[in-house]
Amino acid sequence: xxxxxxxxxxxxxxxxxxxxxxxxxxxxxxxxxxxxxxxxxxxxxxxxxxxxxxxxxxxxxxxxxxxxxxxxxxxxxxxxxxxxxxxxxxxxxxxxxxxxxxxxxxxxxxxxxxxxxxxxxxxxxxxxxxxxxxxxxxxxxxxxxxxxxxxxxxxxxxxxxxxxxxxxxxxxxxxxxxxxxxxxxxxxxxxxxxxxxxxxxxxxxxxxxxxxxxxxxxxxxxxxxxxxxxxxxxxxxxxxxxxxxxxxxxxxxxxxxxxxxxxxxxxxxxxxxxxxxxxxxxxxxxxxxxxxxxxxxxxxxxxxxxxxxxxxxxxxxxxxxxxxxxxxxxxxxxxxxxxxxxxxxxxxxxxxxxxxxxxxxxxxxxxxxxxxxxxxxxxxxxxxxxxxxxxxxxxxxxxxxxxxxxxxxxxxxxxxxxxxxxxxxxxxxxxxxxxxxxxxxxxxxxxx
Length: 448
Ligand SMILES: Cc1ncc(COP(=O)(O)O)c(C=O)c1O
Fold this sequence. Notes:
15 strands; about 15% strand; alpha/beta; binds pyridoxal-5'-phosphate; Aspartate Aminotransferase, domain 2; Aspartate Aminotransferase, domain 1
């Protein structure tokens, strides 16, 4: 066999795990003790050796309807047979329009139009670009500044890391976008520790937008983007009244408010979107993950009618927004999305998350008092547990907790820094909630 033939051969090659450069993973540590997942069903992953692993993270905040749902699998299969791909530019297919209408119907107010992409990162960059272009087409092209928040996570595109506020995601990548400023983050352990739901302290931190507006002049600011609940930085629910205050200041100065709901969308906080939970209508909502319950990559931006309308004024043969992706509204993603939304509705999964929230919060708080637990925060079906860092390395204790959880306790958790983040699929039962926190408690004891 020639070298080329060998390279193209379908025969399995010896696999030493080296070829795959894993994202956001310490590759060398992983490859020494791999956590390999072979399949999934319902609330469980199954490791390559067949062990069941209870999913306390909905994969990565995405599998809200649970794993391997027959209805979603069947819809994807049907779609692949019927229409594998349709060009996203200049052509459409029916399920794209149907899914856009269904997603828009879940959003509050006149958030009526949906732009599709393939991930949360693309959704964020799309929303930032729409904000800039919107001001431009209205003759306010001086509005170019974008405001994010410390500790914010908005994916990994250059737009997202520029408005994001996680140091390691930014410091290696040059000067990023210019003209970006950041609000202060909203976490303060002294006033907020062990809070269930939204903390009392912190609404005033939204007023920093006034300071930033005064510094640059409001007419230079295009948009503010925040996560309603900051997830990836360690679960920071918004202080009571904070988002309302941000909305009011944005209104005062004509600044667009973008809520990044990539995690909070599709039931995580007991509502279709956190915007509904908090009674705050943003100008745009970014979404991804839960829209297909993680089964096919998809993201998107829901846009208010006046923003969409502002683009619909030029000659009709001219493209209104010079932006899009080959796989925008991919047929398989749309089919998965429609089947997922059906499941959410038929099984009332958003309402289920809302009903389970108090029990979930109580179960999380049973871990208070365990060695090294500095704070526990809960909101919706989300819990963040801060562990004291080991003197010899930030993040080491939580990383060890994740390893022990997977290998010894049969539970999948997510960690960020020294925080454990839990966000099970919304189909989780009360018994499984008990099991998750019992197992996590054992893990915390083991890494004391
Ligand atoms: C709030 C938020 N925005 C954006 C993203 C990026 O999504 P993706 O990884 O699909 O690009 C994430 C991912 O966790 C997120 O939590």
